[in-house]
Amino acid sequence: MYRRFVICLFGTLIIISFACLSYAQEKPSPSTIEVTGKATIMVMPNVATVSFAVETSATTAKQAAGENAEKTDKLLKALREIAAKEVKIKTSGFNLTPIYDKDSRLRPKGYRARNSVLLETKSIDKVGAFIDEASRVGVSRIGSLTFSTDRDEELRKEAAVKAVQQAKKIAEDLAKAAGLTIKKIIKLNYSPHGPVRPYRMEAMAAAVRTPIEVGEMSIEESVHVVFEAY
Q1: In this structure, what CATH number is given to the domain that contains residue 97?
Q2: Residue 39, Cβ neighbours under 10 Å: how many?
Q3: What is the reported pTM?
Q4: Spacing of C-alpha 122 from chain mean position
Q5: Does the residue 142 lie in any domain?
Q6: Does residue 96 contact residue 66 with C-beta atoms inside 8 Å?
Q7: How far is residue 177's CA from residue 181's CA, in Å, rounded to a whole number?
Q8: Which range marks the domain in which residue 106 is found?
Q9: For residues 222 and 202, what is the distance between their CA atoms, to the nearest angstrom?
Q10: HSE-up of residue 160 (Cα within 13 Å, Cβ side)
């Protein structure tokens, strides 16, 4: 009797084990939908950065450096006269290089001094005036002119949120077409694109008033999202 009971119990356990195994095999794995969402925000720049290149040449290094210092000082004074309090002006680099003849590099025929003056302002409407003032004191070379925004971090986050919303909308449309329903996000990858790329313009100081027209900048972010669907 006891032996028959053990055999029956063992047989029941085998049946239950096979039933559990069969259920585990029949249970479908969740479906996934992978989507990349992108978003772009357009914004008007509110910061202008101008790099003025002060260049002088002379037969001796001392003379070239001295003339450059004098010319740079004139430029700084001229810019500060028309600059508002929020304008930042500083020198950003100085170098002195020898000048050689094409036929001989044994002895330099002179020296060239170059100093960069960097101006940053939120008064974008005055950029043309700054360039014209530089021309008036003899600085006719603009190293660069860029426009950017001081809200780059805030706007990147806003664009990233919109990218996630777009990814969700695309995933819902795909799931509906496949007869599925989005359940949840199981993975989200996001790498900020970094600071907003400055909007660059070419400019040369001129004897007449320099017109500056600024356009909108684009801030783009993207996310890669994996959704679980059933």
Answers
A1: 3.30.70.2970
A2: 19
A3: 0.66
A4: 19
A5: yes
A6: no
A7: 10
A8: 47-148
A9: 30
A10: 15
Domain of 40: which CATH number?
3.30.110.170
How many whole angstroms separate alpha carbon 82 and alpha carbon 80?
A: 5
Domain identity same for 85 and 120? yes
Would you place residue 111 in the very low, low, confident or very high pLDDT band (cuts 50, 70, 90)? Answer: very high
Instruction: State both tokens at 149.
Output: 């925004």
> Are the C-beta atoms of 32 and 46 separated by less than 8 Å?
no
Mean pLDDT of 145-170: 94
Say how far apart CA 184 and CA 206 lie, in whole Å: 60
Residues 218 and 155 in one domain: yes
**Among 148, 167, 189, where does a domain finish?**
148
- Alpha-carbon distance of 97 to 64, in angstroms, equals 10
- Count of domains for the chain: 2
User: Which tokens go with 25?
Assistant: 């095999």
- Which pLDDT band holds residue 210 (cuts at 50, 70, 90)? low
Interval 75-86: pLDDT, tens: 999 999 888 777
Confidence at 203, pLDDT banded by 50, 70, 90: very low
Amino acid, single-letter form, for residue 32: T
d(CA 103, CA 98): 15
Are 71 and 95 part of one and the same domain?
yes
Helix ranges (DSSP H) in the chain: 2-26, 61-82, 127-136, 152-177
Q: Is residue 40 part of a domain?
A: yes
Among 100, 121, 148, give the residue marking a domain's end.
148
